[in-house]
Structure formats: structure tokens, C-alpha cells
């Protein structure tokens, strides 16, 4: 991203910063605010919104500035013009304010995030998400709405989907053909819940349900669904292969744990592994059919093939968000964005036996976990996307590890449910995107 620092330097020298509104002051929002305020000339964080405004105020104060509370669109606009900092509990003030170039949504809340996304697009703001669950559910529709409004839509670099897409573009640029894009996890247990993850969450200042969504596999399946929607790659099977390897296995050896022939014959699949090193990084398995280039790949220590492993040994989340902002605003290059309609969904699987009449809880809770499934298959089987499951009432008893369908539930009244229906209508009759490049 060498060119990005030059673009930001030019903006700083010319006093024309990219003006950003940040929605969310949680585990990711706080360090993002600190980065933007203290370390990134060329980007001006104007306003920070959070449902509990004292947290937004504290995040800005911790970054070394003296913010004031904004209770009107005009107050946000004045702050943008005067180079001041404001906070609010109303994200609409930030989305509607003139002078804001980009809205960065980092709440991780699907329904709330959907409202913010629609508001930002309606008011002509570029929209950058750090919300895999929202993007992995209705990202294709939000991208289509952003295109129609003449603004950019995408997910951030630094989180795994963005790092995977950087790696994918790098590998394609080498003249290799990517066959598998993957994530490296250290733990996978679909039956984890907020009680089992409470201690870990407290240690790192996270919420138990967030940590649970990492541990039970829901989050990584969302991340890989996003990659699928950005590339046209598909799921080889529901829940992916997800090989569990001996702890510390070098990622260079990971091809041995996948069905090599099936991977090579595919048009491109998404997946992840558990236990390989370095974690938590990302990897790509690719082929190159030219014997001359194969000779040089072997010389350069990538082995004899047929699958060559490329990897990035880390993902740095909030540290790389500024790169995402300048890529989107100055170069019209969203780090991650759907290329058409949905390719892969994340469907609802029972984490335990559930009785009829129960109300389904949220992501990373006690009753369900999510698995990636191809959109075509999911619609043929009428499977329930897990982002729609929260608040739904179960019509019948289900057994542990059973996939839930729309017929099994009465949905609650949520914005995300309506957007899901609209997405189906919007892409009805259109072919599912196929792998690009």
C-alpha cells in the first residue's frame, strides 16, 4: 500500500483531509478513533456516534481531544468545517451531515448496522463496513444500492476478508490461478457459548457473544461468505472442509489436508483450517501450469506443486482501516465488495436441542451457530440465514446440528429481514457470479 501513504501525505499538505464519520465506539471503534486522531494525517475524524454517547465521548477524550456533543446535523457540519470533534447518540446526524465524505460502520450489530448503511447511502456517503455479519447477509443488495446512488460500498482491509482479497489479487497478478482462499483459525468448537467464553472475553475486553461467534465458527463462515461474494468462489460442502491439523503445522503444508484433486478441478473454493501456523493469518492455494514458472516457483521455495501456498501471517484489523478509507475515496477501490448477487450464505444450525416455541437468541449465543452454504443450495432447501434468526419463534422442536428452514420459524419484525427479501427480488433471474480473473 505504498501509494496510499503518498495520497494521504498530499491531502495533509494541501489541507483537504478525507472527512469521516465513525459509528460504533466498541472494541474496534475505540482504537480506530485513536488511530485516526493521533496517527493519520490526511484523514479527519469529524464525528463519532454510539448508542451510549458517553462511550463515544470517552473514546475521543482517550485519543487526546476535547469533543462536544452534537444534537443537530448543523453541529456536525460545523465541526467538519472547523476541524473540531463531536459525538452523538444519533448516527443519522452523521450520515445526513454535509462535509462528511465517508461513513465507517463498526458496530457489529446486524439490524442497527443495516439502518446506518441505508441512511449513509441515501445521503450520498461512501460506506465502509467493519461488520462481516451485515455484509455477509445483504452486502450484494447494499452494493447495488450504493452503485445506484453513485457512492462506494465495501468492507475494510485489515480484517480477514480484506487481507484475503489483497492476497488473492497479489497471487492473480503473479499469473497463478487461485483455487482456494482460506483463513487460519486456532480454535473451532460449534458448541461454545457465552458462558464458556466469558473468561477469554474479560481478558481481552470483548463481549462474550462476540468471542463465542469466533469460537463456534459463525464469524469465520461469514468472513468466507464475504470472500465468496467478492470472487465467485463457492463452498465445496456445507460448513466447508475446515481441516483440523496438528497444532503448529506450517501453513505451507496445508494442501496435504485438503482433497487436492477436487481443489485443482474446482473453479475456486473458500475454506479455512484449524491449528496451522502462523495464525491468525490467511492463505491461498494456487496452480501455475507453465513448467518454466513451476521451475522458478520451486527455486523460490514454494515447492514442486501442483498447489502452491501463499499466505499472509497476520491481520491487523483497526491498524489498516486508514488504508481502506483512502483506497475507497481517492482510488475508487473498495478492499472488499460483492461482484453481483449472493454466492454463499451463512445458514442457521442448532447448537443444541431446541424445544418448539423457543425464541432464538442472537449470533454467538446459546442456541445456534452458522455454516457457509452455496446460495443456490440454500434457496433450494429454504434454509434460514442466521442473521435473520434472532428473535424468531421456533414452530417445532429441532435437534442439535440440524439446519433450520424458513418453514421452521416465525420471523420477528426486523429491518434485515426486509432487506433480505428485497435482495432476493433484486437478483431474481440473474446468474450467480462466477469466479473472476
Give the SSE layout.
Layout: H1 2-13, E1 18-23, H2 29-38, E2 43-49, H3 53-62, E3 68-69, H4 73-82, E4 86-88, H5 91-96, E5 102-105, H6 110-122, E6 126-129, H7 132-149, E7 153-155, H8 160-173, E8 177-185, H9 198-204, H10 208-215, H11 218-231, E9 234-235, H12 260-265, E10 269-274, E11 282-287, H13 291-299, E12 308-312, H14 321-331, E13 344-350, E14 368-374, H15 375-380, E15 393-394, E16 409-410, H16 415-426
Parallel strand pairs: 1-2, 1-5, 2-4, 3-4, 5-6, 6-7, 8-10, 9-10
Antiparallel strand pairs: 8-11, 11-12, 13-14, 15-16
What does the model show?
The chain has three domains: about 1-155 and about 320-330, 3-Layer(aba) Sandwich (Rossmann fold); about 160-315, no CATH class; about 345-425, Antifreeze-like/N-acetylneuraminic acid synthase C-terminal domain (Type Iii Antifreeze Protein Isoform Hplc 12, Alpha-Beta Complex). Helix 1 (about 1-15) packs across helix 14, helix 6 (about 110-120) runs parallel beside helix 7 (about 130-150) and helix 8 (about 160-175) packs parallel to helix 11 (about 220-230). Helix 2 (about 30-40) links the parallel strand 1 and strand 2 (about 45-50). The chain has helices spanning about 1-15, 30-40, 55-60, 75-80, 90-95, 110-120, 130-150, 160-175, 200-205, 210-215, 220-230, 260-265, 290-300, 320-330, 375-380, 415-425, and strands at about 20-25, 45-50, 70, 85-90, 100-105, 125-130, 155, 175-185, 235, 270-275, 280-285, 310, 345-350, 370-375, 395, 410. It is α/β, with parallel strands linked by helices and about 425 residues long. The mean pLDDT is about 95. A seven-stranded parallel sheet has the order 3-4-2-1-5-6-7, sandwiched between helices. A five-stranded mixed sheet has the order 9-10-8-11-12. The protein has 16 helices and 16 strands. About 40% of the residues lie in helices and about 15% in strands.
Amino acid at each position: 500500500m505504498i501509494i496510499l501513504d503518498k495520497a494521504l501525505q498530499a491531502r495533509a499538505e494541501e489541507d483537504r483531509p478525507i472527512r469521516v464519520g465513525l459509528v460504533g465506539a466498541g472494541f474496534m471503534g475505540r482504537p480506530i478513533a485513536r488511530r485516526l486522531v493521533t496517527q493519520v494525517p490526511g484523514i479527519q475524524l469529524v464525528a463519532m456516534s454510539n448508542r451510549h454517547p458517553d462511550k463515544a465521548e470517552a473514546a475521543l477524550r482517550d485519543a487526546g481531544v476535547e469533543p462536544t456533543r452534537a444534537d443537530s446535523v448543523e453541529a456536525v457540519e460545523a465541526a467538519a468545517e472547523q476541524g473540531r470533534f463531536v459525538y452523538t447518540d444519533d448516527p443519522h446526524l452523521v450520515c445526513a451531515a454535509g462535509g462528511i465524505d465517508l461513513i465507517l460502520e463498526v458496530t457489529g450489530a446486524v439490524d442497527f448496522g443495516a439502518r446506518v448503511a441505508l441512511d449513509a447511502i441515501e445521503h450520498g456517503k461512501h460506506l465502509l463496513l467493519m461488520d462481516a455479519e451485515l455484509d455477509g447477509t445483504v452486502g450484494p443488495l447494499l452494493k447495488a444500492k450504493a452503485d445506484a446512488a453513485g457512492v462506494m460500498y465495501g468492507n475494510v482491509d485489515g480484517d480477514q476478508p480484506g487481507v484475503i482479497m489483497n492476497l488473492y489479487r497479489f497471487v492473480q497478478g503473479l499469473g497463478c490461478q487461485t483455487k482456494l482462499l482460506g483463513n487460519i483459525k486456532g480454535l473451532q468448537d460449534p458448541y461454545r457459548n457465552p458462558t464458556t467464553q466469558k473468561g477469554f472475553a474479560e481478558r481481552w475486553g470483548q463481549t462474550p457473544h462476540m468471542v463465542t461467534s469466533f469460537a463456534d465458527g459463525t464469524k469465520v463462515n461469514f468472513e468466507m461468505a464475504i470472500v465468496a461474494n467478492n470472487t465467485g468462489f463457492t463452498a465445496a460442502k456445507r460448513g466447508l472442509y475446515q481441516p483440523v491439523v496438528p497444532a503448529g503445522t506450517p501453513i505451507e503444508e496445508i494442501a496435504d489436508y485438503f482433497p487436492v484433486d477436487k481443489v485443482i478441478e474446482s473453479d475456486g473454493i473458500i475454506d479455512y483450517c484449524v491449528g496451522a501456523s502462523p495464525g491468525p493469518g490467511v492463505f491461498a492455494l494456487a496452480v501455475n501450469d507453465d513448467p518454466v514458472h513451476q521451475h522458478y516457483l520451486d527455486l523460490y521455495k514454494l515447492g514442486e506443486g501442483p498447489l502452491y501456498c501463499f499466505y499472509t501471517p497476520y491481520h491487523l484489523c483497526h491498524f489498516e482501516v486508514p488504508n481502506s478509507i483512502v483506497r475507497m475515496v481517492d482510488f475508487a477501490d473498495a478492499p472488499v465488495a460483492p461482484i453481483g448477487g449472493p454466492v454463499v450464505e451463512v445458514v442457521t444450525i442448532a447448537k443444541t436441542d431446541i424445544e418448539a416455541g423457543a425464541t432464538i437468541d442472537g449470533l454467538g449465543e446459546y442456541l445456534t451457530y452458522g455454516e457457509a452454504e452455496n446460495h443456490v443450495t440454500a434457496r433450494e432447501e429454504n434454509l434460514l440465514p442466521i442473521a435473520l434468526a434472532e428473535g424468531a419463534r421456533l414452530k417445532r422442536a429441532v435437534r442439535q446440528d440440524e439446519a433450520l428452514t424458513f418453514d421452521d420459524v416465525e420471523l420477528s419484525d426486523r429491518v434485515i429481514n426486509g432487506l433480505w427479501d428485497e435482495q432476493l427480488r433484486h437478483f431474481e433471474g440473474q446468474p450467480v457470479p462466477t469466479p473472476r480473473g
